[in-house]
Structures are given as C-alpha cells and as structure tokens.
Write a structure and sequence with these properties.
two-stranded antiparallel ribbon, alpha/beta
Length: about 500
C-alpha cells in the first residue's frame, strides 16, 4: 500500500488541461520547433510539479536537464542552475566544465546544444527563474533566441510577484516575452472541485464536504497548503483542527520574515483586526499602541504580496492563512492588548460621530471578547442582536449568540435572563438550519421552563425536541415525551 508521501495528491492533482499544454510544447520541440514556456504562479501552486510531470512523459530518447535557482542572500553563484543541469548530461561532455571566462558560456552551451539536439530532443527545466543571477539570464536569452528549427524546449517556472521593482529579472522577462516562440502560462490555484480531488488523494478516501469547505476556505486552492493543512488528519475528519501544523506556520511566514520590523508589526496588527481594515483605523490603533506610522509599512507589505487592497479602501491579506498564522504567533498578552486597542478605537469612533452598524457591533464584540472584557463583549453581543433584525439567521449571529450564553454565566447581575438568551439562540439556530445547536438550546430551555406555569410552551419544546432528535440522528421518538406533550396541552384543547 502506498505511504502518505507517495500519494498522487502530494505531487499533482487536477491539472489535466495544463499538462496537455506543456506536453504540446514538448511535442513541437521534439518535431524540430524550438519553444520556451514560462510557467507563472504563486508559491506552492504546483508549477514545479507540473513541468516535471510533463517532462517525465517526454518521448525517449529525450535528454532532460534540470537546474534550480536559489534565493541566495549574500553571495551570487554565476550560472548556478546551468552548472546543476550538468548532472542530467550523463555520458556527455558538459560545455561549461572548466570554463575559463564566463563570457564564453553562451556560445559554448549553444554550440553544444546544437550538436546534441541533432541526435535527440533536449528539454531544459529551470525552477524559480526569478532568482537567477544575471549571467544565467544572459545565457538563457541567448538560447531562447537561437535557431527556430532546433529540437529544444526551455521550461521555466517563475514565482509571481516575488522580485522587487527594478530588479534585472523584470527587464529580462519583458525582453524574453517579446521574442517569437516564447509563451507563458499563468497557473492558478485549484478550484473547489480540484481541492476536493486533491484532499481525496491525500486522505485515500472521499472526504467529508465540510472538510473540503474548511480546507478551501483556508488555502484558497493552493496545492502545497492543501498538503500542509491536511497533514496527519484522519480520513473521517470533518473539520481542520484549530492548531495549525508547524510546517504550515513556517511556510506561511517565510515572506513575512523578510519585512522590516515595523511592517511585521503592522501586518500582525491587521491580522488581529480579524478582517479588512481601513488604514485610518489601523493608524489609530497603531498610535494607541505606540507602533508609529503605518503608511510605509502598508506599502512594503503590499509590494511583498502579503497585504492587498480590498475594494480599493481596506487592507487584508493576500492569503487568509497568513492572518490566522500571524495572530496565533503572537503571545497571549500581546494579542489581548492589541484587541483591547481595537475595541477602544472602535468605540472612540462612535463618540466622534461614526454610525453604529451591525458590522461594527459584531467587530467590537469580538475584540472585547478576545481582550478578556467579559461584560463589554456580552453587552455588544446583545447590541449586535438588536441591530441584526431580519439578518439574525446567519452563522455569524449564531456564533455570537452561543458566546453570549457562555458569557452570561459569569455575569449574575446581567439584566437579561438565561432563558431569554436561550430563546434567542434557538431562534437563530432554527433560522440558520443548525439542528444540533437548536437541539442543545431546546434541551436547555426544557430544563428552565416551568411546565405548570407555561404548559403550552413546554409542550411545544417537547415536540420540537422529538423532531430535532430525529433530524440529527440523536434518537427516535420517545413515547414518554409524546405522552407528556399531550398531557400539557390538555389545559387548552383548542390549541
């Protein structure tokens, strides 16, 4: 039986159309039409797996050469991916061995390629081309602009938006895309169906739909992140665990670590905001915490593809997992302090004349709750309920009312009774169709309802519990409940 590491979902799933495009390029090259294909995409989208799978299926005796560019920080190794590619030229004299002057590299490799390609097709794979040194880019440009009738294909992967403005790679890319026989592919994340197929492959079984929804909401279809979030899951899992795997945390925070200290703080502050944040509010909160000006930090985070402008007005993360990882990475004391600052600034905005909306009330409920402000969170949850009106039938409102019931237990002097809150919870759960939550509320209401004083109410709850138990699979009809319900309504035969 295959191990987890061998499952297809860890390499390539749901890319049949894209594979066909790459294979067509290889087929034309094998027939004597030299081509270059640049595959663009975000980190983890599966660029490398795609080109490797396609190249592995090339018709023998195709010569496959592979090199990778590295994000070296303080040194530059000229021709690094081309030197690494020599490992695929077994039995052939590699033209760059013992190179005296780097300026000779383009002509030497071009002449070697011309000779070898006359005997068999040659495919050169270069991974992460955006990190190539300038000498490598020059050599590749020389090869790309070479003879059109050569049996040669260059497949290169390019990580989108990972090179700063002004970098030489941008100029090389613009020049390359103007050449004939150079095409590009933008590899997009998987859609929900593709994500489901990959998760099924990873787990070895058809996944529960709620798990697929949870994975897709977290990863937005990024195949590598799909692998990380499902690591160690049981095949029967219905949800992702609250604690993210360590490997996922490292992967998601990789780019974040390259930011300046202030930009790291500000992006973490956006994460604590819990959703798209206006720069004005962010500045108020940052000033409250003594973090400084946010303008340059936001620009830096946007250029690094960590933050993006939503609806042209608010900042949020390019990928939702970044927000979750960054907030969970904060110490509990810092997280509480930052949530408290958001709550203060939100309430100050109301004093300054900002309108009280449902979104703001729900946001303030969450910030007070996360800050440990039990009473304030409870009071804002009830204000949110009042503001919701006809919009009470939402999963957000259900979550909020569940929390209000929990918070009420620690507030003996609260004006609202537990019974009142349970009725609100039941109403919301019924509107949402959350049978399990409604059943729990009905059970709790039956415990606090006086059957002598409110027989019709108690009878209604008993009948509803019977139906909910059947709907949730919690049990069948209890004859005793039916008998009691009938006895309770006997005081009002016309009911």
């Amino acid at each position: 039986m295959a191990t987890r590491a061998e499952t297809p979902g860890r390499t390539l799933t749901g890319r049949e159309a894209e594979l066909a495009v790459v294979r067509e390029v290889l087929d034309r090259a094998a027939d004597g039409q030299s081509e270059t294909l640049l595959v663009f995409g975000e980190a983890g989208v599966g660029k490398t797996a795609l080109v490797q799978r396609a190249a592995a299926g090339a018709t023998p005796p195709t010569l496959l050469l592979c090199g990778v560019c590295l994000p070296l920080q303080s040194i530059s190794v000229p021709l690094l991916p081309l030197l690494a590619a020599s490992r695929g030229s077994t039995g052939l004299q590699w033209p760059l061995d013992g190179l005296d002057a780097i300026e000779q590299a383009p002509a030497l490799l071009d002449a070697w390629l011309q000779e070898v390609a006359s005997a068999a097709p040659v495919v050169l794979l270069v991974d992460d081309l955006q990190w190539a040194d300038e000498s490598t880019l020059d050599v590749l440009m020389y090869l790309v602009a070479g003879p059109a009738d050569r049996r040669f294909a260059l497949l290169a992967t390019v990580r989108s938006q990972s090179v700063p403005d002004g970098h030489p790679f941008h100029r090389w890319l613009a020049d390359a895309l103007r050449l004939p026989r150079v095409t590009h592919m933008d590899l997009q994340p998987l859609d929900r169906a593709g994500t489901e197929a990959q998760v099924a492959s990873l787990l070895g079984t058809v996944p529960h739909q709620t798990l697929v929804d949870d994975v897709f909401a977290h990863t937005l279809g990024n195949p590598y992140l799909n692998i990380l979030v499902t690591e160690g899951l049981e095949p029967t899992a219905r949800r992702l665990p609250d604690d993210l795997p360590d490997d996922l945390r490292v992967a998601v925070r990789r780019t974040w670590h390259s930011l300046s200290p202030l930009a790291r703080d500000i992006t973490s502050l956006v994460a604590v905001g819990g959703g798209p944040v206006r720069p004005e509010l962010l500045q108020d909160v940052a000033s409250d915490l003594g973090l400084g000006e946010v303008g340059a930090a936001l620009q830096e985070a946007e250029e690094s593809r960590i933050l993006t402008l939503v609806d042209g007005e608010r900042y949020w993360f390019h990928h939702p997992l970044q927000a979750q990882v960054l907030e969970q990475s904060l110490t509990s004391s810092r997280r509480r302090r930052w949530h408290a600052a958001y709550a203060r600034c939100g309430e100050v905005s109301l004093v300054s004349g900002s309108p009280l909306t449902l979104d703001l009330a729900v946001t303030l409920t969450g910030h007070h709750d996360q800050a440990g402000h039990r009473r304030e969170a409870y009071e804002w949850s009830l204000r949110s309920w009042d503001l919701a009106g006809d919009a009470r039938g939402s999963s957000e409102m259900l979550k909020l009312m569940r929390r209000a019931v929990e918070l009420r237990e620690g507030l003996p002097d609260a004006a609202e009774s537990v019974t009142d809150l349970l009725w609100r919870l039941r109403e919301t759960a019924e509107a949402v169709g959350a049978d399990g939550d409604e059943l729990a509320a009905v059970d709790a209401l039956l415990e606090v309802t006086d059957r002598v004083a409110e027989p019709l109410v108690a009878s209604e709850l008993l009948v509803r519990r019977i139906l909910l138990r059947i709907a949730t699979g919690a049990g069948f009809i209890e004859v005793e409940d039916v008998q009691v319900a009938v006895e309770l309504v006997s005081v009002a035969p016309s009911s």
